[in-house]
């Protein structure tokens, strides 16, 4: 098959397969390592975020618990002193300034009238308030942590209160602190400290799906619906999850509940940020393993070449089976492994047989199958050769006398035997360069290169005598007639030389057969004019 038409070159195929399998191995090894590491990193990050959210939830609980304790302590101090304006004023200042837990502190009596407030700048002392925090505190007469709401002064806040009872258990009012959600507050410090710079953030949502804390201040107070994660938080669920946030960023999320308020604390980190160290690590791995991988590929290419080379050379040999040098080329192929060795042996055997057959076919093409002498093709080839070499030659045109009688008397097969016998006679008298041929039924020609008329006549005469003297089985003795002409002595045209030879043969027949007649131009002319 032609190399160019061949669908795949073996060397390229081996090379391609080796490289592809090498790549597949390397890439899948990398991919497997990357996937495992990635999964581990995601799990670790999710777990971290959950721990983080849980810790913040507990810290928030602790903060609120501590805030309530402060108010409880103050409520005990204030019991029986609600009429003491200066005590009330100094107590609200103490609570606010000493602990820094509240943005504002106020004392309210049972009629909802504000008895004292810190800071004074709020200017609500003496006012009766009907905010959700005040009303809930009055109604419950128990410690309260309100849901977020907007205060009279327009601040989004939560309201933490503790009831004040007299010595004999009468409800007198409450002391309360507010924590602003949109302005700086203790809660902000608590949650904001943990804010990551890599896109990680936390947010807190209350039971009404309202954002209590969010790094984006504009969203504070916003009620978030249609958020599966917040749905879970509202149901009291805790755990970890991979979600896509409102900005379409994939987030690794941990979420936990602050028990005192039921608030959900969500800590989340962008997947990309969590995996960034892994990407760096894999980059390093790639850089470090690259030389080994390149070396591997060089070895693969070299091996592929080494393996395919003998096969390539054998394939080349197969493409040129007919050429004479092919056998030698195949011999030279270095078949260093078993399969190539066997292939080489088989090909050498094949080439040997092929060349043998070709040789035989060529010979057969130029041979008369009955007698083994040359045929008309070999005669033409010999003439071409003499012409090329500018060689003189003589032509003996030979015909068996009365051959028809032989056939008629003894049968065609015996006639064939006679032809074979005559062929043997011809072969015996021929030298190496002479060309004996059978050109018709019982017509033979011998070309005698470098032989002139006199010698040709002697050879023909000797042949004639030998044939005449030899007994052929079944048939007995036969005779032959021979006509002789020479090139270029008798004609410069080869065709004419043969014609003269034929004429001489028929002349021998006419003159009684069993004769040798030599063409003589002058005499031929004379005969022609007579
Ligand atoms: N056995 C056999 N006979 C052949 C073959 N080719 C031709 N012949 C016979 O050779 C004979 C030739 O006879 P003719 O050319 O008529 O003449 P002849 O009998 O040889 O007589 P002259 O040539 O005149 O001496 C014919 O009978 C052909 O059938 C062959 O291959 N085998």
Automatic annotation (TrEMBL):
InterPro entries: Diguanylate_Cyclase, GGDEF_dom, Nucleotide_cyclase, Rev_trsase/Diguanyl_cyclase, Sensor-like_sf. The keyword Membrane applies. It is an enzyme of class 2 (transferase). CDD domains: GGDEF, PDC1_HK_sensor, PDC2_HK_sensor. GO terms for molecular function: diguanylate cyclase activity. Residues 391-521 form the GGDEF domain. The chain crosses the membrane at residues 12-34. Keywords: Membrane, Transmembrane, Transmembrane helix. Its EC number is 2.7.7.65. This is diguanylate cyclase. The lineage of its organism: Bacteria, Pseudomonadati, Pseudomonadota, Betaproteobacteria, Burkholderiales.
């Amino acid at each position: 098959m032609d190399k160019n038409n061949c669908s795949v070159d073996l060397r390229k195929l081996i090379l391609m397969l080796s490289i592809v399998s090498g790549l597949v191995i390397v890439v899948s090894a990398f991919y497997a390592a990357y996937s495992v590491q990635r999964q581990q990193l995601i799990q670790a990050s999710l777990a971290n975020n959950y721990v983080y959210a849980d810790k913040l939830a507990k810290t928030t609980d602790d903060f609120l618990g501590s805030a309530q304790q402060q108010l409880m302590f103050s409520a005990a101090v204030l019991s029986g002193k609600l009429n003491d304006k200066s005590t009330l004023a100094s107590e609200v200042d103490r609570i606010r300034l000493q602990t820094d837990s509240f943005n504002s502190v106020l004392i309210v009596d049972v009629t909802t009238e504000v008895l004292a407030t810190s800071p004074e700048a709020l200017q609500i002392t003496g006012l009766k308030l009907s905010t959700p925090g005040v009303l809930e505190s009055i109604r419950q007469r128990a410690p309260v942590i309100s849901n977020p709401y907007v205060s009279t002064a327009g601040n989004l806040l939560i309201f933490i209160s503790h009831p004040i009872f007299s010595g004999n258990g009468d409800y007198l009012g409450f002391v309360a602190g507010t924590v602003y959600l949109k302005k700086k507050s203790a809660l902000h410090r608590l949650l904001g400290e943990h804010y990551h710079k890599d896109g990680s953030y936390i947010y807190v949502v209350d039971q009404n799906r309202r954002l209590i804390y969010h790094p984006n201040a504009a969203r504070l107070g916003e009620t978030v619906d249609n958020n599966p994660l917040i749905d879970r938080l509202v149901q009291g669920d805790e755990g970890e999850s991979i979600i896509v946030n409102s900005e379409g960023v994939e987030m690794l999320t941990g979420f936990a509940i602050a028990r005192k308020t039921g608030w959900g604390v969500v800590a989340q980190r962008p997947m990309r940020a969590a995996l960034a160290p892994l990407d760096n690590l894999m980059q390093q791995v790639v850089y470090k393993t690259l030389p080994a991988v390149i070396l591997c590929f060089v070895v693969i290419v070299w091996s592929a070449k080494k393996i395919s080379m003998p096969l390539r050379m054998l394939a080349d040999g197969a493409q040129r089976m007919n050429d004479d040098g092919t056998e030698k080329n195949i011999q030279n192929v270095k078949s260093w492994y078993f399969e190539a060795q066997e292939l080489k042996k088989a090909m050498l055997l094949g080439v040997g047989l092929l060349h043998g057959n070709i040789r035989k076919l060529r010979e057969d093409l130029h041979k008369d199958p009955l007698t083994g002498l040359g045929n008309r093709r070999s005669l033409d080839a010999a003439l071409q050769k003499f012409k090329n070499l500018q060689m003189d030659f003589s032509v003996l045109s030979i015909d068996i006398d009365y051959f028809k009688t032989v056939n008629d008397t003894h049968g065609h097969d015996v006639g064939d035997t006679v032809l074979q016998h005559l062929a043997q006679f011809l072969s015996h008298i021929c030298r190496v360069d002479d060309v004996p041929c059978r050109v018709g039924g019982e017509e033979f020609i011998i070309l005698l290169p470098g032989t002139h008329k006199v010698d040709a006549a002697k050879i023909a005469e000797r042949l004639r005598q030998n044939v005449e003297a030899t007994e052929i089985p079944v048939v007995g003795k036969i005779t032959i007639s021979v006509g002789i002409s020479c090139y270029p002595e008798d004609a410069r045209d080869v065709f004419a030389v043969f014609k003269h030879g034929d004429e001489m043969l028929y002349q021998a027949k006419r003159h009684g057969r069993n004769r040798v007649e030599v063409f003589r131009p002058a005499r031929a002319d004379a005969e022609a004019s007579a």
